[in-house]
## 1
Amino acid sequence: YLRASSNYSRKFMWQWSDLGPMLKAGWPIALMTVIFEAPGWIDRRVILAYVGTSDVGYYVLAVMAAQLFFLFPHVVVASVEPKLHHDFPQNGQPVDILPHLWIPLKMLSQIIPLAIAAFELFLPALIEGWLPAYKPAIPAIRVLIWGSLFMGFAISTKPFIVAINGQKSVLGFYLASIAL
């Protein structure tokens, strides 16, 4: 109903003149995302090549558990990202938008470790009750869930870097981290 009663044109239009500036601004952001995801892709390939398919199943369970704690900080910071992009052009100083990043990170640094500790405490009972065949995955889950704490904080800074248009300056750091 709303679509039929609206008075705007539904015709798809593309302004080719905007493509160049969009690609120029967007390629570092896309590359940051690809570089950030690359260690996970590489890690899975190495484990599959050297360990075998049954151990990959244990690893996948560990990755799924770690994503729970990794994605929560990402969602929180993604909800703050529009505020970063709105406030920075108005003020022009990175220090003015730093509280939008610092307050969620400070809150998450207090909540996420407690959630991970509680999860780790109940982990053996959860695996024993629901997935007893995956008991060998418990050590990998423990390592990855604590590692996801730091990964979540690292990805949480990306919207701040993009908001201040600093994505080109950090690409070298991202590439160096892959090399290491």
Note: The radius of gyration is 21 Å.
## 2
Amino acid sequence: ETGPVLTALLKARWLAGHRRFPEAERELMPHYDEPRVQHSLIDIAFEEGDERKVARRVEDLLDRTPDYHVRLACAHALSRVGRRDEERAELEKLAEDGRAPVSVRATAYYNLTLQAHEAQRYREVAALAGAWRDVAPDDTRAAWSLAQALFRLGDFDQAYRTLEADELAPRTLGQRQLLA
């Protein structure tokens, strides 16, 4: 692909690589509506180490874009700058949006489930994993997360039924231990 957007992206990457961040941003601004440019501007702000600029760019992008994949990337960027509550809110919107692609919703549920698991909120893990399983029934991570949460909550029968219903075969040590 050739054209002004690709040229601007390549030039901006070169400028950012030489720590000429303001010039790199100026190169991209005329093409701001292009998703690749938006991602690049966020990346440049990360490279520059300006977390406030990252957050501003993400907020602006979330206000402007209906693109679900871009919104998922923005949620990840919010996490990287320590804005976990805002990340969580965006992930919840994506997970619950029936118009979003299944892959985006599943990824949002995965991240929400992981956060709840890390905080040892196993009832929340079970609820999220159940919703995730409904959205993406072929994603075995959802069933394993649900079974693990049920196990942690002491509902061993339901955990076993979950594993049995999905005919899950353990692939990791943790999964083998859960079945032991």
Note: DSSP finds eleven helices and no strands in the chain.
## 3
Amino acid sequence: NYTVPANSTIEMKYKVYVKTIADTGLTMSQLSYYQRQMTNTAIVGGISTTANIDMQFPNLNSSTSVTDENNNYFAAADEKLTYPITSYNSGDATYEDMVIQDSLTGIYQYFVTPDTTPITVEVDGVKDSTTYTIRDLMDGNVKKDLKSKSTINITFEVTMKDENTLESLGYENIESLVN
């Protein structure tokens, strides 16, 4: 409690620390419906007053694709496949500690030892000096900050196993590998 003398004004200042996106537990799709303004209401002597401030959020737009080495749109034995993943932060805030993960669910077994294969990580065209592997990407161990209006590109290559091994895994004339 604080007593304000008659006919005087005081100004009270305080700081509010907003959690990082990761701390909120919200997904990017949930954030799109989240409030975009923070409102504070103070009551002084029974009279309320409010203050508003806009909040900044990241907004990711992501895509991935696959290309095969001979560009015939089929994954064949002993062929290299290239997977690029691209995300653009069109929002007004940095996405801190953004986790990039590709589990290769349902297709991992068709590749020749991909775990130790390095991946390329570039932010706004600048290659990251950290060495990441496909195993890091699969386990969700690739974490980056993505500033507002920035793009991250992750690229990795895998090689299909030989024909006999693929057949033993039940791989027969699959037209595309969906990841």
Note: The two ends are 60 Å apart (CA to CA).
